[in-house]
Description:
Layout: E1 5-6, E2 16-18, H1 42-45, H2 51-57, E3 64-66, H3 69-75, E4 83-85, H4 87-93, E5 98-103, H5 114-126, E6 131-136, H6 140-151, E7 155-161, H7 162-167, H8 169-177, E8 181-185, H9 191-199, H10 207-220, E9 224-226, H11 233-253, E10 259-263, H12 268-284, E11 289-295, H13 300-303, E12 305-310, E13 319-324, H14 346-353, E14 358-362, H15 364-378, H16 386-403, E15 408-413, H17 421-428, H18 439-443
Parallel strand pairs: 5-15, 6-7, 6-9, 7-8, 10-11, 10-15, 11-14
Antiparallel strand pairs: 1-4, 2-3, 4-5, 12-13
The structure holds pyridoxal-5'-phosphate.
Amino acid sequence: MKQKKFILSESEIPTQWYNIQADMPNKPLPPLNPQTRQPLGWEDLAHIFPTECCKQELNTTDRFIDIPEPVLEKYKFYRSTPLVRAYELEKALDTPAHIYFKNESTNPLGSHKVNSALAQCYYAKQEGTTNVTTETGAGQWGAALSYAARVFGLEAAVYQVKISMLQKPYRSSIMRTFGATVEGSPSMSTRAGKDIITKNPMHMGSLGTAISEAVELAITTPNCKYTLGSVLNHVALHQSIIGLEAEKQMEKAGEYPDTVIACFGGGSNFGGLAFPFMRHNILDGKRTEFIAAEPDSCPKLTRGRFEYDFGDEAGLTPLLPMYTLGHDFRPANIHAGGLRYHGAGMIVSQLIKDGLMHGVDIPQLETFEAGILFARTEGIIPAPESSHAIAATIREALKCKETGEEKVILFNLSGHGLIDMTAYDQYINGDLVNYHVSDEEIANNHFGVK
Ligand SMILES: *Cc1c(COP(=O)(O)O)cnc(C)c1O
């Protein structure tokens, strides 16, 4: 019988994360202080983030970094995650390609985000922090952080984008079940929130407003640190557990990927799966193709500019060198909330510039069509974000059907969609549409500081 699933025993789970910064032919440019335009050191970031995360953020020398024992212990609650051969999907597409997916949806929180939440909360606790805060859009990151804070004995305060809180009420319930305080953003609990509400009482919030509130809370509250679920280098570092496991599992399957695909919001699940394989392109002459699948309504990888820009709408963060659509770009209200972000992480931006990977744009309706085909063949309802990776995989598999190539394609199933069923209902009822962005819309946005 053909083997479907490849799993690691506890003793085979990697004990170090992989830091691609050590191997990059060109290192990412440094983040800058927006006022002085001077490069920032880890000391400059440590009043906001846990100190160890700041050091990891700027570490361009250590290829492997030990996973702390208590984090590894918690990883064992849900890792390894299965590597699965998608035989039924292959059959439905009638493709000679071999399709594998790494299933990060099997933990109870439903996405890959917990891999970094556990690390960030552990480091925060180690340095004497009592409280952590963050923002969340659709709520996967907020849910993961709320659980991780509970695990390490921290109080968590989460600012959730108000419109998402109304659209996906169960994610707030999950966060509160783990003991977090959840506020719809903009809220009346911060200066930033009050200012926004005073100007516009009906403001329904954005990741930009929620980041501004969470950062303010962290700066003004003693023993409180801010945490972020994507974009930054240390988050991609923690997520590398995905690709390091997948590398061992592909070996068990007796194959090596020709193509690696993941959906792309800020780059954490993409980097997590892709970077451990990309090191073999950089160091060992492998020729794997790396594809990041983004929504065509938020096309920063393919149509953004490489510039220094703010990470948030209000302009409170350091300036980051990245492919961006401009920090006040307002992505359309697609259901893949985790992909509605204006910029790409610093590492990925440099890798695109250096031609080591590329992006593809997928329209919303194609992602739902792909997600439903995947559900009907492989039995898992994917997160709308993950369906972008599935759609890109299907495109590649259909190319193989034309050329007859037996390519090995590996994609990341970053999460399940069981809290997103309203979106599936809307698609099935014919109520969803595509949102293509015009060149004018992109040209009219504000990039960096002028
Ligand atoms: C947050 C999220 C994403 C997007 O974030 P990345 O940092 O780009 O990975 C993708 N999929 C799921 C399920 C998410 O929760």
